[in-house]
Amino acid sequence: MNITKVNTVIIGAGLTGLFLGKLLKDKGQEVLILEKSRGLGGRVATRRIDQLGLDHGAAFLTATDQLVEILIKSKLHYEILTEGILVKGGMNQLAKFIAQGQNILKEQRLEKIEKIKTGWLLESDNALTIECKNLIITAPVPQALELLNQNCLLNQIEPKIETLKYSKALIFLGVMKNASNIENFKFMGHQFLPMNIRDLHPNGLIIQLANEFSEKWFNESDEIILEAILKIFKLSPMGALELDKYELKKWRYSKIETPLEIPFYKVQSNLILCGDSFIDPLASAEAVSLIL
Ligand SMILES: Cc1cc2nc3c(=O)[nH]c(=O)nc-3n(C[C@H](O)[C@H](O)[C@H](O)COP(=O)(O)OP(=O)(O)OC[C@H]3O[C@@H](n4cnc5c(N)ncnc54)[C@H](O)[C@@H]3O)c2cc1C
User: Fold this and answer.
1) Residue ranges making up the domain that contains 142
2) Within a domain: residue 218?
3) Ligand 1 atom closest to Cα of 169?
4) Structural domain includes residue 17
5) Does residue 99 share a domain with residue 198?
6) Number of domains the chain is built from
7) pLDDT tens digit string along 52-104?
8) From the CB of 58, is ligand 1 less than 6 Å away?
């Protein structure tokens, strides 16, 4: 068996994992990031349709000092609005910037975790085997707990960790036949986000469906959900515009309802959970980098 050995493995190439990876790398630590998807950024996601982008994950990010500092260094175009930070040309540009020079393996879903004398033995769905001293999981905590549970690593977890809740999100990605001059607006509680004002698909539209709608319809089939969304679209101020194509994205874990007021959680020695379940994704990553 071919085993890769590394000091620290970070699970997830979302903002938390990438920022933490960069902090550790800058300190000279040997780090490997494993990401289950094909792309970087996690919930900071930009999907290509007709080779043009649509921000179908977070459309804004809370403007924290760390985030603004990174954006200034990145020279990316961004705006700070009341809703948060908007990165022009695609929210995932931010992830790509932080990822530069890092050791990241995509399409590697961590599945098995075994405690060994020197730390952890990990196995991915692509049969990659890694031995590491420190293991940091940045997936939303409920997802991380599922993984730990499957590997019988959840002996004495605190109740406040187990009761963390995320809202579900339904996202409509539409491409209209013609461009519109409409700005962001809310209709019946749903957030309409034309992509042209983000320097993305000139005819692209994202609708972030309201929380109550997303919770109610989440488990229905895509066909039924899209039918309900199209009715909303038709009633909206954009309803007269003709749609060329559209699709649906479902986020089971979109935003944390009430983050824990701790920076991270240590499950066992050298096994840490961090990310947006805690104070703030980047603050959580920074706190972990200080203890490793
Ligand atoms: C629709 C939507 C709207 C949002 N709106 C806002 C907003 O307005 N303001 C705001 O501040 N935030 C918003 N957010 C939340 C924001 O996107 C997140 O807080 C932030 O991106 C969290 O980053 P993260 O790195 O902690 O987690 P994630 O981005 O979830 O990264 C975790 C990564 O881990 C990977 N992963 C999980 N399990 C495994 C495994 N077993 N093996 C390998 N990889 C794994 C995932 O693929 C993912 O890439 C929104 C999110 C969504 C989806």
Assistant:
1) 3-43+92-163+260-291
2) yes
3) 1
4) yes
5) no
6) 2
7) 999 999 999 999 999 999 999 999 999 999 999 999 999 999 999 999 999 99
8) yes
